[in-house]
């Protein structure tokens, strides 16, 4: 990585223009030179937590090619800083950039547990699994301080409501007691994201995430405690982690996961500009190759928004990747599967305790 230009501990290396704003902000060379001469810091690179007050917390997922009907996000923005994250674009709706702002301006929804409880108690609510982290990671670093995810899990347990979790943070093991209680009634499934077996790759792709070793250990601990684990090998990026599919699947299976899922990277919205800036700074020797191979998976573009093809891609490289994943499933996950979550208990616990009549 070019240490002169790289911002330590961050994925995005700059803020990009918010498409909803007429004005833009840029860090000028003359300002940077002034700061150098004056001995001042031009950018303190600190994370700010900003409390917000939404009226609702459950989101209905309209996309037909995403395997969930409802999601909830206790945080907006994510300090993990994954350079490829599709959720970066959502930060523009809050008035921020999809670049560095996404990693350093984290919105915190402290009322999430109360909003969730109110929703689950409604007579009109019909039981469907709700996925935590449909947009940003519910176990990102902010969770250590605010513990909103744990409070929400307590609500799910109280009302015996099925819940799914997507994360790449070993912090989930802090809540093993609640997860085990949910698992007794088949009310929980967990997806752990693991994109590489290489720590050097992990550090530049996902700078503030849990190490690969810790994530694999997390898969094992959860599985050993009867909690179904799916692993997301996502996204697969040609010439960065595409060569790791089979060894990664083998390691995941050996640690007890019941299934794997994958996507091929697509750089939608502002992410294309952010990713290109990042890869020229971090992997200048293969930047052109990677970008061209991503384009070859999406009809000559860095992004494809068509449902059904956007996450699987098209063309020879995409076909090779998809076939490798199929082979990995046959080789390492034959006769394994994630059980369907229990939808039958919640109605009996609608008021927070078992109905006797």
From TrEMBL:
Q: Which UniProt keywords apply?
A: Iron, Iron-sulfur, Metal-binding
Quote the Gene3D superfamilies the UniProt record gives.
3.80.30.30
In this chain the Radical SAM core domain maps to 61-301
InterPro entries given for it?
A: Elp3/MiaA/NifB-like_rSAM (IPR006638), MJ0683-like (IPR040086), rSAM (IPR007197), rSAM_sf (IPR058240)
Q: Which domain of life is it from?
A: Bacteria
For this chain, one GO molecular function annotation is: iron-sulfur cluster binding
Pfam families given for it? Radical_SAM (PF04055)
The protein's name is: Radical SAM protein
